[in-house]
Amino acid sequence: MSMIEVQDLTKEFKVYRTKPGALGSLLSLFSGEHRRIRAVDGISFSVKKGECIGFIGPNGAGKSTTIKMLSGILHPSRGRVSVMGASPQHRRKYVAQNLGIVFGQRTQLWWDLPLRDSYEILRKMYRLEEKAYHRFLHRYHDLLSIGDFLETPVRKLSLGQRMRADLAAALIHDPPILFLDEPTIGLDVMAKESIRSFLREINREEKKTILLTTHDMDDIERLAARVVMINHGRIILDGCLETLRERIGLPSMIEVHYREVPRLARLDRVERVKAEGKNVTVHYDRNRISPPALLAELNRWGEPVDIRTKEPEIEEVIRRLYGEQADPRSKTAPAR
Amino acid sequence: MKLYFTLVGASIRARMQYKFNFLFSTFSYGLIMVTDFLMLAAILLRFDDIRGWSIYEVGVLYGISSASMSLYRVVAAEIHDFERYMVEGEFDSLLIRPVSPLTLLLSRNLDLNRIGGVVQGLSILGISLSHLTALPTFFWLLWYLPVALGTGLIISVSLGLMTATLAFWTHRIREFQVFTLYAPTNAANYPVSIYPGWLKWIFFTVLPVAFMNYLPATFLLQKGGEWYLLVVSPMAALLFAGVAFSFWRFGIRHYHSTGS
């Protein structure tokens, strides 16, 4: 069964040259001085029940705009969206009942009130029965330990706690579909991991359909079986994680600080080695050489005192996908 | 409706988290209203009448318009501050709930500090009424007052909502509020008949503040109006509310959101 259908979806924004002041901005609406920005440019895809899709792309690629059209916040300029068989724009309330949404950078909770109050309010908003509500509290205490901070005002929660609280809030009405916009942004490694294992759990056990946007390649590797990559408002790749790997490999970077200036030797199967005094930076592809194997090699060069690894940025991944053919169009601004 | 009270209760509890701030702003706002009232009294007492309207008759107009404007500031505080939702992109979170965004907006905040303004308007109304007991239509006037306040509230909220809707295109609305809210409601403190023709036309159509007090008062205060104006005025207010709501719905379709 298809949960989400998107056909030829396009969103254009008119950007007016604004004059100062509110009156100025009203006048500029009529002056006709504007340019059109196509934030989303004719994309099509469909999502089946129980899929977990990673939506990736650089800033301003159109990810958020697409999610906002799927959730009924924005009206498309052209094309068709259907979520559970209904248009999110025309049947907004029906779709909202079937949708949980988390915006990683903005909480949906009542900031000054204890967390429990937010859940009580949402419970009434979604007309949840007493029994279902208690089941919710128990279940999400088991999964996300929300019971530990139910009485704490939301503004006093740590970022990791707040994200767990927000995730639970998005799932209070047990929606079959979940949209997550940067769910791990700003979190430390432990918190990221607990969010990821939670999402994996509800995706596998409860067959929730998940659509997430992220900048973190780790999120994608751990969660998404399917990746949709979007750039300049168009889909440039739609396939399983393996397809992405075949196209770009698993670019990684390792930085080693040695006690003494290292004795460099030839290293096969890596892309680039940069040495500066006691520091060595190696760019490599995890498909071609595993990190332990690489470390073993690097150990022969001297005694490492500090080792750091870094995952590639989405921007780097996109660059690889395109090779050197940079898109001549200037970078589009985020939806505004 | 039950949901509305739950949400309003939550917003009040949230506000009470900052008790000192709440008490202080209520106190300072009350003080402002008192000085405002003294100023008005000083001005009114210098005039005997305005175009055939005595001070107490003007006081009735003033009381209705200022009480309903303040009531609007109490119940629709977030509509009044709507540009915040556009500038900070907070409007998104109102659109993802299975509840109308207008309900969510209205229930987000009751600005209790503004109750001082309602009390001030009602006091002026009370004082003025006590001097008008000789009118043959006095009991009509008393009976009609709740309707007048309701009409005034509906017109103020509609004006506020229409102005807020402009934010979907312009983001900022503070400057518009001067023309579409403050100016007309202040003008409605006095009989509309004193204004030049084009302004009168505006107050009966695009910014229909004449219906909240002046028009029914022409009958209630015996200025040549007919009884049916008491029916026409609330009807006009409801019609205007319908127009404002349609405009709001139209605005939401053009909502642009912000990048995250």
List keywords for this structure.
heterodimer, A: alpha/beta, Rossmann fold, Alpha-Beta Plaits, globular, disordered C terminus, B: 260 residues, mainly alpha, 2 strands, 2% strand
Beta strand % of chain A:
25-35%
State the helicity of chain A in percent bands: 25-40%
Distance between the termini of chain A: 34 Å
Q: Give the topology string of chain B: H per helix, E per strand.
A: HHEEHHHHHHHHHHH
CATH-level-2 architecture of the largest domain in chain A:
3-Layer(aba) Sandwich
Averaging pLDDT over every residue of chain B, what do you get? 88
Spatially, the strands of the biggest sheet of chain B line up as 1-2
Largest interface: A-B, 45 and 36 residues
Helix share of residues of chain B?
over 70%
CATH topology group of the largest domain in chain A: Rossmann fold
Helix tally of chain B?
A: 13
Looking across the biggest beta sheet of chain A, what order are the strands in?
A: 5-6-7-3-8-9
How many structural domains does the protein architecture of chain A include?
2
Q: Kindly provide the radius of gyration of chain B, computed on alpha-carbon positions and rounded to a whole number of angstroms.
A: 19 Å
Give the DSSP E fraction of chain B (strand runs of 2 or more residues).
under 5%
Low-confidence stretches of chain B: none
- Largest beta-sheet characterization of chain B: 2 strands, antiparallel
Query: What is the H/E string of chain A?
Result: EHEEHEHEHHHEHEHEEHEEEHEH
Please tell me what the overall shape of chain B is: globular
How far the N terminus sits from the C terminus of chain B, by CA atoms, comes to 33 Å
Structural class of chain A: alpha/beta
